[in-house]
Amino acid sequence: MGSLGKAAAQLGLSQPALSKSIRKLETELDVPLFQRTTKGVTPTPYADTLARRSQAIQADVHSSIVELHKLKQGEVGEAKIGIAPALSPDFMPDVVSRIAASHPSIKITVFEALYEGISQAVVRGELDFALTNLPPRGVAPDLEWRELFRDRFVVCCSKAHPLARKGKVQLAELLEHPWITPAQEGVPWLRLVDLFIAARCPPPRATVETNSASVIMSLLQRGPFLTFVPRQIILSATQRAEAVEVALEGMTLERAIVVLHRKGHSPPKAAQLVLDACDAAAKLIQGKSDASPRASRPARQPAQSAP
After folding, report:
1. Which of 37, 231, 258, 302 has its CA 20 to 30 A from that of 219?
2. pLDDT at residue 180, as a whole number
3. Strands 78-83 and 107-112, how do they pair?
4. Cα separation, 13 vs 277, whole angstroms
């Protein structure tokens, strides 16, 4: 519930002038924007939709002004990117390094969050695009996506862990060790539970529950823990021999990492250059993955809208 008088004061207008402007806009749009009562006004769903679209338009205008200013100064511009936490340890540093070498004048702003946070920022026009996983319920109607690469979930441990030196491991053996688990309301945890149920085993009991990549990697080095994470989180650690993938018998679980952007929106030049670098880094990952002796994978998907 709000007050037109307070809103008018914030805008530097009189209340009658603001009311007249609202009525004119409602007439032009042919929809009611506010529900009026004796206690004040409440925005309708039409107003909420208009506000969301207006935020995106305002962000586009601001981005265009910044890009023109940068071009005038001889610079390429700025890119604002959202990423899932799994891409912060290895993938995104690789992309930034590529851009720093090829286009050092580009400024890259990286916002790390789970799907809900970065997808809403893309809808509002605060981010040029996001790299994330798809939610089970699909994406918002204002968004489109295309597959970038496939990431594999793995069980891992420190190099000093007893299972690090073992060949094939059965799921039941994992229950003998303490676990760092994903947040139990999230998709990774539900997938882990499904794997254990399929093997007729109870799911592991969490000693620590977290989605923080830094906390997970720190704990792995300090205790006899197992964890279940996207492979991108531990890639650098395995290359440095600081973490080891547990060789599980018959377990293969993958997810798609996708590029998420607003429907019908063309990214500014700087963002497109960063996206090109993301594609190059993803091809390298996919090439290594396709060369491994695992089962075949689905083809990459073209850009898709929400159903």
Report:
1. 258
2. 95
3. parallel
4. 48
pLDDT > 70: what percent of the chain?
A: 85
- Which pair of structure tokens corresponds to residue 292? 């491994």
How far is 41 from 18, CA to CA, in rounded Å? 13
Q: Inform me whether the pLDDT recorded for 259 exceeds 50.
A: yes
Residue ranges in the chain assigned as alpha helix (H) = 4-11, 15-29, 45-72, 91-102, 115-123, 171-174, 187-198, 213-222, 231-239, 269-290
Nearest to 189 by CA among 200, 173, 205: 205
Place 66 in a pLDDT band, splitting at 50, 70 and 90: low
Q: What is the pLDDT of residues 181-235, one digit of tens each?
A: 988 877 788 888 988 898 899 999 999 999 888 898 899 988 899 999 888 888 8
The candidate with the shortest Cα–Cα distance to 270, out of 97, 95, 76, is 76
What type of residue is 18? L
Any idea of the CA torsion for 204, 88, 243, 156, to the nearest 10 degrees? 20
Question: If DSSP codes are grouped into helix, strand and coil, which group holds residue 262?
Answer: strand
| Class (C level, CATH) for 58-150+257-305 | alpha beta
CATH topology of domain 4-43: Arc Repressor Mutant, subunit A (1.10.10)
